[in-house]
Amino acid sequence: MKVSLISLGCPKNQVAAEQMLAALSAAGHEITSDPAEAEAVVVNTCAFIEDAKQEAIDTLLEAAELKNGRLKTLLCAGCLAQLYGGEVMAELPEVDGVVGVGSCDKIAAALESAARGERPVYMDPNDAPVQEAERLVCTGPAWAYLLIAEGCDNRCSYCLIPSIRGPFRSRPVSAILEEARSLAARGYKEIILVAQDLTHYGADFKDGTDLAALLRELCAVDGLEWLRLHYLYPRELNDELIEVIASEPKIVKYLDIPIQHINDEILRKMNRRDRGADIRALLKKLRERIPGLVLRTSLITGLPGEGEAEFEELCEFLREARIERAGVFPLSPEEGTPAAKMPHVDTETARERAETVLSLQAEIMDEWESSLAGSVIEAMCDEYDPETGTARGRAYFDSPGVDGSVVFPGPCMPGSIVQLRVLSAEDGELRCELI
């Protein structure tokens, strides 16, 4: 069959999508990027928050409209499938089968079953060891994700991830290194390490394995130029790990550290292990120990306990900390989470506060980017247009699909790392010249 896969949500979902594409291809199916050409469509869904669930449902319904043409089979995979199982087909009869997060290796079997007119539901346990599987990488020409662990043990009171993806399970060091070497051999220069909590890596092995040791081994892989880290939780960002990040030139000095809030009582209610003073001290230490560091975080407005004073405390912290990058989200009270049962502000107020923080962060980012004029930065070339002579890429502080970009006169080869002088900045795009 000709199959198209649509992947929604986070980088971990992207890795699962690439594994499913490889499995489908190995089973003899033809892959197409255009759903309108496909006989079967797989939607790899996210269900982290209500907006993500709605996007997943809308995407499934949009794909189902193609059944008036060539499309015969529609599968729902990933987090929405894991959360609701067979209920997905009961609520959306257009869907012909579901495949949970622990059953990606069964995607070809599910497709063939659905094509026979059956209604397959593949829901393997979500606490099994992380699957080792081939991937059909379909990100940039020179960068790829590398999953090092699955699941989460943090149990933040607003979050469904542990219920969907199960407890934290690390991949063996040997498997991660083997995949990293394979990616490097295929020309991928930048590897983005992903897990729900990178800093917890190896804790489940109980043999001393940790992220610092893994990073040292990854930095020794020939061909890899950049290692980027998504996501680091504050409590386990210890001195040894900070030293590795600071001293290894392949680790880009860009850290994504979700803090969610700064108020102590809100952090306590969210079951976060840090308090405001801990976060402030950590950020200060990181700035001192890692020259050129750029920070990214995620924040939630409207959390239980957030009144006007607590919200202003968050804004004042951001004015002081000058965090360069931030994702800001209004609280989505998810059914089944403790936070959903706690008193909190209405959705509209949470959204208004998110907009306020986004506006504040935009000012901070604009001021920081303007300060870069005249400086020299390291960047990776993602694409070059010989007709215009223009190259586009990302500075070390730009994560693909998340942050900004750099534009400069070429020539350059995709994947090459170049030195650029910043000329100007506007709306997240740096205009540069090639040195």
UniProtKB/TrEMBL annotation:
Binding annotation for [4Fe-4S] cluster 2: 152, 156, 159
Any one GO CC term of the record: ribosome
Domain TRAM stretches: 370-435
Keyword Transferase attached: yes
Alphabetical keyword list: 4Fe-4S, Cytoplasm, Iron, Iron-sulfur, Metal-binding, Ribonucleoprotein, Ribosomal protein, S-adenosyl-L-methionine, Transferase
Details of cofactor binding: Binds 2 [4Fe-4S] clusters. One cluster is coordinated with 3 cysteines and an exchangeable S-adenosyl-L-methionine.
Chain positions recorded as [4Fe-4S] cluster 1 binding sites: 10, 46, 79
EC number: 2.8.4.4
A GO term for molecular function: catalytic activity, acting on a tRNA
Domain Radical SAM core: start-end pairs: 138-367
Gene Ontology annotations of biological process type: tRNA methylthiolation
InterPro entries, per database record: Elp3/MiaA/NifB-like_rSAM, Methylthiotransferase, Methylthiotransferase_CS, Methylthiotransferase_N, Methylthiotransferase_N_sf, NA-bd_OB-fold, Ribosomal_uS12_MeSTrfase_RimO, rSAM
Keyword Ribonucleoprotein set for record: yes
Cell compartment(s), UniProt: Cytoplasm
One Pfam family per UniProt: UPF0004
The reaction(s) this protein catalyses: L-aspartate(89)-[ribosomal protein uS12]-hydrogen + (sulfur carrier)-SH + AH2 + 2 S-adenosyl-L-methionine = 3-methylsulfanyl-L-aspartate(89)-[ribosomal protein uS12]-hydrogen + (sulfur carrier)-H + 5'-deoxyadenosine + L-methionine + A + S-adenosyl-L-homocysteine + 2 H(+)
Co-factor requirement: [4Fe-4S] cluster
Domain MTTase N-terminal, residue spans: 1-116
Broad EC category: transferase
Protein task: Catalyzes the methylthiolation of an aspartic acid residue of ribosomal protein uS12.
PANTHER family: RIBOSOMAL PROTEIN S12 METHYLTHIOTRANSFERASE RIMO (PTHR43837), RIBOSOMAL PROTEIN US12 METHYLTHIOTRANSFERASE RIMO (PTHR43837:SF1)
Family in the record: Belongs to the methylthiotransferase family. RimO subfamily.
Protein name: Ribosomal protein uS12 methylthiotransferase RimO
Name of the gene: rimO
